[in-house]
Specification:
This protein is mainly α. The chain has 2 helices and no strands. It comes from Brassica napus (Rape).
Length: 52
Amino acid sequence: MEGSRTRINFSDFCAQEKRKYLKVRVRHMIMKPVEDIYPKWDNDKIYTDLET
């Protein structure tokens, strides 16, 4: 089941806001530390042989 709220294209939304208001308006912005975005688990393996 999908929600009734339409999805947005974030790039198009930002461009439209900049054209209309000359800036991007933000009502709610939550800054999270990287540790919360990409959590580390106790049993995570650290792979050192990966190529970058």
